[in-house]
Amino acid sequence: MAPKGQEQNKIEDLINPVAYKSNLQALNFLRNFVAVVAGIVVGICGVVGWHGFIYHFLAQLSCVVAMFLKGCTNPTSYFATWNNLLFFGVFSSTTLLSYILFWMIFYNVCHVF
Amino acid sequence: GTGCNKLRNITLHRQKDFAYALPAAVSNRLIRRSKDFVIRSGYYKLIIVTSIARLLNMEGAHPLLLDHAVRDWVFIPLTLAIVLMKLLTQYMHLLFNTPPPTNKELKELREMQAVARAGRLRGFGRFIPESSFKMRKDYFAGEKGIFSHKAVTRSPQEAMATDPSVMVDMMKKNLTGMVPQLAMGMVVNFFFQGFVIGKVPFPLSPRFKPMLQRGIDLVSLDVSYFTSLSYYILLLFGLRGAFSLVFREDVIDETEMMRRQMNPMAASPMGVDMDAMFKSEKAALAAVDYEWELESAEERAVDILRRQLKSKKN
């Protein structure tokens, strides 16, 4: 994961756009992957009801932990802000819809079958 | 087979389940007789179930017993078919996506570049000294400036009429994008019509019923069950995320295209109304508030030094 770039003065930060974009892409990839895998697991377990979405948000928040393990010790130097790391793509429609879709597919194949 | 076991279990229990037992018995015999008709008996079974449920006016809370044959022959093949179709359209888009040949004249290019340069000037003007900035501003927005001339670029309507390559490009985009999806939707609707395919894992309000159950008019059927057409649409939207894992580049072509259709200004690379752009750039340049960064640089450096000395002291 490439670092963000130098900080020249405290007021304005210079952000290396290529590195920032690649960091965000890595986070996005991880979020999508976790959404799909969480959907499959939840579908196979047969979770029914609205509380199934809690597992989705739990899985998305575990991405933050995964990012820490990957070496992002100081989020402000890899992503712009804490909020960016926590909430980027958590509420995006692609991850949510993928989660719902795979949850549905595996629930149907295993339980309604 | 397994159907016989199910039949016995059901008749031991409540009488409401008899509705499922009866068509199961009928269609089990059908299955055993002719294996060729295994697909159609699956369909018939469900149609019989739904019609008997309509007669008996079943409540929706009762879990529907859906047949194995539906799973085998509809759910999994439909999923596989849509995944393969999306893969195909993705690859076709990649193969056919040659950039349109730039058939613009030198003057058009020059105007586009001028607009881009004016935008950059506005954004980063504080890095150049004041006289340079004024010179550039006058070059663009002055009385004899670039933006005062009439634009030579043709408007997008003229461009579309005179240039056949634009039409070919649009046709290619449509062909590899929307047309296979529409065709597949029609095919799905034709073959797998009139029965429910699966269950959504969470309860929904009745407002979702026409969305999820197109073509089935059962009022008492649980809203969580959906038909194959709605499943097709769900697949289309849901596979975007999974595909973005496989293809790292931008996969969501049809949503981009839909967004482009709703936003015609940013649509084609050459179809911008140059006159309007000139006017807006001129007004923006006149309105920019200019200050050379170097003027305040000494103060800022002093600030930073002070802060660093303070932090070193602590």
Automatic annotation (TrEMBL), chain A:
One of its GO terms (biological process) is autophagosome assembly. The chain crosses the membrane at residues 29-49, 85-106. One of its GO terms (cellular component) is EMC complex. It is a multi-pass membrane protein. It comes from the Eukaryota. Keywords: Endoplasmic reticulum, Membrane, Transmembrane, Transmembrane helix. The keyword Transmembrane helix applies. It is found in: Endoplasmic reticulum membrane. Belongs to the EMC6 family. This is ER membrane protein complex subunit 6. The lineage of its organism: Eukaryota, Viridiplantae, Chlorophyta, core chlorophytes, Chlorophyceae.
Automatic annotation (TrEMBL), chain B:
InterPro entries: EMC3, EMC3/TMCO1. It is a multi-pass membrane protein. It is found in: Membrane. Keywords: Membrane, Transmembrane, Transmembrane helix. Its main location: membrane. The chain crosses the membrane at residues 37-56, 76-96, 179-198, 218-239. The keyword Transmembrane applies. The keyword Transmembrane applies. Signal peptide: none annotated. Belongs to the EMC3 family. This is ER membrane protein complex subunit 3. It comes from Volvox africanus.
